[in-house]
């Protein structure tokens, strides 16, 4: 009997062990692989208000002078089935990536649930949703508002143009891969990168293609346009300068990992933050490397220029200012929490949306003093 | 460097980059990559898997003998343990023989699982995580992101049909390893395992990217094939069939030819169904084995017995 009981016990222990191993590996795998979309919305500032999406799908309007909330929060929730165990999302909160966009009395949000939302800026009331009935594929890039339209890239590979006031469909442009990039505009030309490794220049009025430029890797970063040149980084580790008129290559620069963040320019120097943990200061005209500032942690958060300083945050939560005069870095503070969201700035204050412990920090870039903190997590 | 970083550096990074490289050479098809890579890993781990399968089979064959020991020394635990050890020693088997290869293989499977999940990066967080595992090979950067479509599957999302396939194949594999037993408790236990694991994995598949389910399906199918070649159809063979499957026969013949010594004895033995019934347990002493010990260290009743025709279910053995 002893053997039989032992065998039964052994089998049960074995079964439990397997379940724990598989379940544990699954949970650990999910936790470390980022298989669950959480979002990292950047802020959009207009009329002293910063609009932001939190990781649990809440939209907040923050008075940037003191961190108080003007209204809300408004919660975006999906009615879709939420999956269950494993790497499927377990909550109905909608992840929001990319910057929100502010237009005429409205602000715009692209949701990972595959919908584009427009809200009243002053009250937070919903104005319109696109599409009204169905859903698109997840939207990761932020919307762009220009020329009376909202332009949004989608994971279905299409760039949508909608009427900014009503959300009515205007046109769409199909690329060969997902679009996670936020579009940029120069005059009447729209620029958008795609997973199909191409940068497209489109007519903003009707979506017709003007030219395309092919790289060796997917493009998720937002293009920067300056002096008839579009600057963009790719997954092939190259940073490109392309002529806006005809899509010809001016120069390219190779780093050691992907470019995810939108570059920033100051006084003919392009600052390109890379996932290899470095910020490259490149001559905008020639592409020559002027400096290489090592933050020792990947950078996915887009930097901002404030006066003669470039403010950049690493994924580890270290915030630095780079003085453009000598390209030396100075640590402003270490938040010690993950930062993926693009930075926003107004006058001498930079606004940092942190992940993990989710909060919004207002940091004076001259003094390094945190002016206020707004916790955003509901946990 | 913490243990996680060491794991990433030694295991995950090579596997992830190999998967990406392989994908670029296999027509950018990640589905094909998962299948080929799983086959490759299974081939590399064949010695361990074979050892585990043989040990499991051997342990199953020892069960009737262990049951006999239990009957004989049930109350004397020390003697029981001593005799058990003796039996294991003579048979060249040990309970750890089943577990050890499985435990050694476990990190490999976990690594493969984690790598597939990472390479299949669906969310922006997944991509950011993946970027930190890449070698500086140009092919790696130009291949990403991988194409997620394979057959009818979007490898990045769960799929009902492949979940059913995983559940079904795991059921078959469990059934093949299930010992034929007349003991209702053992049978209930085996039945629980037979249904529990496939259902559990099918449930997992409904929540995980189908790329992972494809990996589970491939490895299970390969295991079924290996198991068939090594131990036959097992409990999948009709209960009334004559003797074990042909592969069993060949395996035993081969083992007998290779050694035929004590070490291989239980494998050389027939698959003996436990003949004990509750009534027999009671009158064991009266019905005790009358055969003489040949003085080879262990009672003759525990040595390999000649092949007996397999009995159909419910058939009670005749008493001599």
β-sheet strand percentage of chain B: under 5%
Please trace the helix and strand order of chain B, writing H or E for each element: HHHHHHHEEHHHHHH
Number of helices of chain B: 13
CATH class of one domain in chain A: Mainly Beta
CATH fold annotation of one domain in chain A: Lipocalin
| Rg calc of chain A | 22 Å
What CATH architecture of one domain in chain A do you see? Beta Barrel
Describe the structure.
The complex is a heterodimer of chains A (379) and B (320). Chain A is mainly β and 379 residues long. The radius of gyration of chain A is 22 Å and the shape is globular. About 2% of the residues of chain A have low confidence. By secondary structure, chain B is mainly α. Chain B has one domain. Chain B has a two-stranded antiparallel ribbon. Chains A and B meet through helix 1 of A and helix 3, helix 4, helix 5, helix 6 and helix 7 of B.
Outline of the structure:
The complex is a heterodimer of chains A (379) and B (320). By secondary structure, chain A is mainly β.
Topology:
The complex is a heterodimer of chains A (379) and B (320).
Chain A: H1 2-33, E1 40-42, E2 44-46, E3 49-53, E4 58-63, E5 69-75, E6 97-99, E7 101-102, E8 106-110, E9 116-120, E10 126-130, E11 144-146, E12 149-153, E13 158-163, E14 169-174, E15 184-186, E16 189-193, E17 198-203, E18 209-214, E19 224-226, E20 229-233, E21 238-243, E22 249-254, E23 264-266, E24 269-273, E25 278-283, E26 289-294, E27 304-306, E28 309-313, E29 318-323, E30 328-334, E31 344-346, E32 349-354, E33 359-364, E34 370-375
Chain B: H1 3-25, H2 30-44, H3 46-73, H4 77-91, H5 95-119, H6 124-131, H7 138-143, E1 149-150, E2 153-154, H8 160-177, H9 184-205, H10 210-231, H11 246-258, H12 265-268, H13 278-282
Antiparallel strand pairs in B: 1-2
Helix pairs in contact in B: 1-2, 1-5, 2-10, 3-4, 3-5, 3-10, 8-9, 8-10
